[in-house]
């Protein structure tokens, strides 16, 4: 029986990883992302995979975001040597992003080990090394959109444009079972509509099972449209320059940086920005921008029109300087006014952006402009939430600069977009799995899908296993069918004592679900 196991991206937005097991014994892994966020969740990056890496036949990747690709080098390290199939652009992006991610892991462990050494604690090993990352790239196979790729007699697949970042895809997989062909579709991250550079998400004709993201399952983006977004960008820059300051923009290296550069270019073409000093100060973002330019023929219509009119790639901007070396980066600090500084990381918790914040946050005439999501606990979020003082590199810095944000760059579908996208599927799925979302977001979306389209919708938990039959039913749920009241009581007592020992620690999903099922079953027996 065909099965799916949710090895990540379940009840959370990070660590996307889904294992599909076919009737005839093939194992396909869709995405293998890094867990990010709380310490407890990040711990999962260090443990063993919940499957044998060398038993996987093919790995498929939806797009080049670290929470979807970040554990690929670990998969290699643990013995996987099969093909990693994705779009051509995702392959190119991974070749830059994965070694960069490995370098960050190595640096982080080195720093922790210096502490551990002093404290006499055992030394840690990085999740993977730069060499693992470089080696795994050799397994990548880059494919075009819309072509049917036959893996063997039982399994075929197709990548279509998800419109999320350049190269992102929805993956449709056809699997021959004992008596019929079933189709399972993974949306990866679904894009936002009318965004710079990327196309809108492709419409899905039909599917039997759908695994769909739900990052914004409970909300609609209250965002500027294109005209308002560019207008606001123009106003922020102009007023900052008039005050004699700099505009510092923290930006994610993939897609967000390039979206912003394109918008700046539009303003330059209109004569609205005359700065001599626009800097892209992030070696990673520079490398990614170069890959984007190489693939400009995959940009959306509007970006290609712009290209035809100007005769250049929309990201080739007059006065935009790529600062690669540390010296070039430091030299930016001498400029007191009229500079636009785009730097990473996007949430200000690492990288060169911290230096630029240190030199501009305390200045009343500068502006810090946020164009991306700032997670709880990051320096970016603290500044955006209005902190008067922040600590950067151990130094206290007063926040005097103007703090601004533009919401119109989101690269995810919101609630309305997701519902619309499902509505457009001609042959509706018999079962939908909501992944890549916090439980609250997914739950609200689940209710709406069930109400609007009468499609059974399930929010899988971490490591849940599901059999994909005509009427799919969970298989790893606790089997209560033959339990007596006495047995239930015993189990419950056992669980309660376990929970007491756990104390203040957050309990794992498995423990939570076990408890939840037990309580429900007990309630049923009692009423
Ligand atoms: Zn993504």
Written description of the protein model:
It is a single chain. The protein has 16 helices and 23 strands. It is α/β, with parallel strands linked by helices and 527 residues long. It has 3 domains: 282 residues, Metallo-beta-lactamase, Chain A (4-Layer Sandwich), CATH 3.60.15.10; 180 residues, Rossmann fold (3-Layer(aba) Sandwich); 42 residues. It has an 8-stranded mixed β-sheet. α4 packs antiparallel against α5, α13 packs parallel to α14 and α15 packs antiparallel against α16. It is globular. About 2% of the residues have low confidence. Bound molecules: zinc ion. The site of zinc ion (ZN) has 4 residues, from loops.
Please render the helix and strand layout as text.
Elements: E1 3-8, E2 17-21, E3 27-30, H1 39-42, E4 58-60, H2 66-69, H3 72-77, E5 84-87, H4 88-119, H5 130-136, E6 140-143, E7 149-150, E8 155-161, E9 169-176, E10 181-186, E11 209-213, H6 226-243, E12 247-250, H7 256-269, E13 277-281, H8 283-294, H9 301-310, E14 320-322, H10 326-331, E15 339-343, H11 353-360, E16 367-370, H12 379-384, E17 389-392, E18 395-398, E19 402-405, H13 415-423, E20 431-435, H14 439-453, E21 456-458, E22 465-467, E23 473-474, H15 485-502, H16 509-526
Parallel strand pairs: 3-4, 4-5, 5-6, 10-11, 11-20, 12-15, 12-16, 13-14, 13-15, 16-19, 20-21
Antiparallel strand pairs: 1-2, 1-22, 2-3, 7-8, 8-9, 9-10, 17-18, 22-23
Helix pairs in contact: 4-5, 4-8, 13-14, 15-16
Bound molecules: zinc ion.
Which stretches are poorly predicted, pLDDT < 50 over at least 5 residues? 472-482
> What bound compounds does this protein have?
zinc ion
Molecular shape: globular
The proportion of strand residues reads 15-25%
CA-based gyration radius: 24 Å
What is the total number of structural domains?
3
- Strand order in space, largest sheet: 6-5-4-3-2-1-22-23
Main beta-sheet strand count, sense and barrel state: 8 strands, mixed
CATH homologous superfamily grouping of the largest domain: Ribonuclease Z/Hydroxyacylglutathione hydrolase-like
CATH topology of the largest domain: Metallo-beta-lactamase, Chain A
Helix content: 25-40%
- Briefly note the structural class of the backbone: alpha/beta
Question: What is the number of helical segments per DSSP (H or I, 4+ residues)?
Answer: 16
| Average pLDDT level | 92
How many beta strands in the DSSP annotation? Answer: 23
CATH class of the largest domain: Alpha Beta
**CATH second-level architecture of the largest domain:** 4-Layer Sandwich
Distance between the termini: 35 Å
């Amino acid at each position: 029986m065909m099965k799916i196991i949710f090895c990540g991206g379940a009840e959370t937005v990070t660590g996307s990883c889904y294992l599909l097991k076919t009737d005839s014994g093939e194992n396909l892994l869709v995405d293998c992302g890094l867990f990010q966020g709380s310490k407890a969740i990040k711990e999962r990056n260090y443990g063993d995979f919940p499957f044998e890496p060398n038993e996987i036949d093919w790995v498929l990747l939806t797009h080049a975001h670290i929470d979807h690709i970040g554990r690929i080098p670990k998969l290699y390290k643990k013995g996987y040597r099969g093909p990693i199939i994705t779009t051509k652009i995702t392959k190119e992006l991974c070749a830059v992003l994965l070694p960069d991610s490995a370098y960050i892991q190595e640096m982080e462990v080195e720093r922790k080990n210096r502490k551990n050494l002093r404290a006499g604690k055992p030394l840690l090993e990085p999740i993977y090394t730069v060499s693992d990352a470089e080696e795994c790239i050799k397994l990548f196979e880059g494919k075009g959109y819309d072509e049917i790729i036959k893996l063997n007699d039982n399994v075929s697949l197709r990548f279509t444009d998800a419109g999320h970042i350049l190269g992102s895809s929805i993956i449709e997989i056809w699997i021959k079972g004992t008596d019929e062909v079933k189709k399972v579709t993974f949306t990866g991250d679904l894009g936002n509509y009318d965004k710079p550079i990327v196309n809108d998400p492709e419409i899905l004709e039909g599917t039997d099972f759908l695994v769909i993201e739900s990052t914004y399952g409970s909300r609609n983006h209250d965002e500027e449209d294109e005209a308002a977004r560019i207008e606001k960008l123009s106003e922020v820059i102009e007023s900052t320059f008039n005050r004699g300051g700099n505009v510092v923009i923290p930006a994610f290296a993939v897609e967000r940086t390039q979206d912003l550069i394109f918008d700046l270019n539009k303003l330059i073409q209109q004569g609205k920005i005359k700065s001599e000093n626009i800097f892209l100060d992030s070696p990673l973002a520079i490398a990614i921008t170069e890959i984007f330019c190489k693939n400009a023929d995959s940009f959306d219509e509007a970006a290609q029109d712009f290209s035809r009119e100007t005769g250049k790639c929309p990201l080739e901007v007059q006065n935009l300087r790529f600062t690669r070396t540390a010296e070039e980066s430091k030299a930016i600090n001498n400029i007191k006014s009229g500079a636009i500084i785009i730097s990473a990381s996007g949430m200000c918790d690492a990288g060169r952006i911290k230096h630029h914040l240190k030199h501009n946050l305390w200045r009343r005439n500068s502006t810090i402009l946020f164009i991306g999501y700032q997670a709880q606990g990051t320096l970016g979020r603290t500044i955006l939430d209005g902190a008067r003082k922040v600590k950067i590199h151990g130094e206290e810095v007063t926040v005097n600069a103007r703090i601004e944000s533009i919401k119109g760059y989101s690269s995810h579908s919101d609630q309305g977009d997701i519902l619309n996208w499902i509505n457009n599927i001609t042959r509706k799925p018999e079962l939908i799995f909501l992944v890549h979302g916090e439980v609250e977001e997914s739950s609200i979306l689940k209710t709406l899908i069930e109400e609007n389209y009468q499609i059974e919708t399930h929010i899988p938990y971490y490591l849940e296993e599901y059999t994909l039959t005509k009427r799919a039913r969970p298989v790893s749920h606790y089997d209560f069918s033959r339990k007596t009241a006495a047995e239930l009581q015993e189990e419950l007592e056992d669980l309660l004592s376990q929970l007491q020992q756990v104390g203040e620690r957050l309990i794992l999903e498995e423990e939570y679900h076990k408890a939840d099922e037990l309580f429900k079953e007990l309630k049923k027996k009692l009423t």
